[in-house]
Amino acid sequence: MPKCCVIEGDGIGHEVIPAALAVLQRVIPGLEVVPAEAGWDCFQRRGVSVPQDTLAAIRECKAALFGAVSSPSYKVAGYRSAIISMRQALDSYSNIRPVQSMPGLSPRPDVNLIVVRENTEGLYAGRERQEGETAIAERVITHSAARRIGLRALQLARSAGRKGHLTIVHKANVLPVTDGLFRSSILEVLKENNAEPGGLKVDELLVDNAAYQMISAPDQFDVLVTSNLFGDILSDEAAYWCGGMGMAPSLNWGEEAAVAEPVHGSAPDIAGKGIANPLAAILSAALLARYAWGLEEAARRIEQAVKTALIHDLQIENNRLGKNNTTNSITQAVLTYLN
């Protein structure tokens, strides 16, 4: 039976994660739950954003459901973002960000793509320093990390239900050393695994063009693979097509563990009011079922229940969930279609 480490985090994480857990427990009866803590509130209490006992719990379960994290926009001694800390401590090297048209919310019906983002290095490697009046951030790209994210993207592009189209996104014309290595390493692993002779279409785009194409013609994309910062930006941009950040799920996935998290922040302005949208957290739980536990049917049931609830039960105004929806009413609507 699967085990899940549950970390509510900060702000609305305390509302959306219980909702997602209720859905998971409906489709996976007997799911074992191990509670843990992480985030800004945890740092203020314990002096660390991700305690060692939390990391141990995730490793034991091999899967976690994480809510949201509040991070100050200024440097705080000893503090580092909880989710970045988890990604690097657990070596969760791939960030999986699916974007799919949703009934009533999506401006167009034909978007079904996955952004596969390298999750442990790039400009998020944490190598920042200040020299006088100059601030410097180092961008780290390694051959091994680029190869394994390329292999992960290849696996997803070849998986059931995909179009078999992989797009490598980079800026090697301006960053020939770092992005040059990223690009060549992925092409190397694709060649070793007979990507194109095996029926896979492989192409590449410069990141600025990819951003333009994401807005003008998102239906052309299937699986995109890119570096950390580019993936962060492109996947947030792509979330427009699934109904916004409140609908965007993600999975931090490595060999050691998988950590599912909604993409949205902790939203302190609405925390505790019972109006947070739990659908991104619920859809993230579906990713955990599919990729961490191999429970494809459970994942499909969750995703279909969300779509059916959007069609029949939830108030939608101008391609957004209406104000009359509450965290509880949305959750109950999804649960209704899981009976």
Index terms:
339 residues, alpha/beta, single chain, Isopropylmalate Dehydrogenase
Walkthrough of the structure:
It is built from 11 helices and 14 strands. The protein is globular. Helix content is 39%, strand content 21%. The chain folds into 2 domains: 1-95 and 246-339, Isopropylmalate Dehydrogenase (3-Layer(aba) Sandwich); 107-242, Isopropylmalate Dehydrogenase, CATH 3.40.718. Strand 1, helix 1 (13-27) and strand 2 form a beta-alpha-beta unit. Helix 1 (13-27) runs parallel beside helix 11 (327-336). The chain is α/β, with parallel strands linked by helices and 339 residues long.
- Report the CATH superfamily of the largest domain: Isopropylmalate Dehydrogenase
Shape: globular
Helix content: 25-40%
What's the helix count? 11
Q: What is the fold named in CATH at topology level of the largest domain? A: Isopropylmalate Dehydrogenase
| Rounded radius of gyration (Å) | 19 Å
Low-confidence stretches: none
The proportion of residues in beta strands is: 15-25%
Task: Provide a brief overview of the structure.
This protein has 339 residues and is α/β, with parallel strands linked by helices.
Question: Secondary-structure map with pairings?
Answer:
Layout: E1 3-9, H1 13-27, E2 32-36, H2 40-46, H3 52-61, E3 63-68, H4 82-89, E4 94-100, E5 112-118, E6 128-131, E7 134-137, H5 143-157, E8 165-170, H6 178-192, E9 201-206, H7 207-216, E10 223-226, H8 228-238, E11 249-253, E12 258-262, H9 279-292, H10 296-312, E13 316-317, E14 320-321, H11 327-336
Parallel strand pairs: 1-2, 1-3, 3-12, 5-10, 8-9, 8-10
Antiparallel strand pairs: 4-5, 4-11, 6-7, 11-12, 13-14
Helix pairs in contact: 1-9, 1-11, 5-6, 7-8, 9-10, 10-11
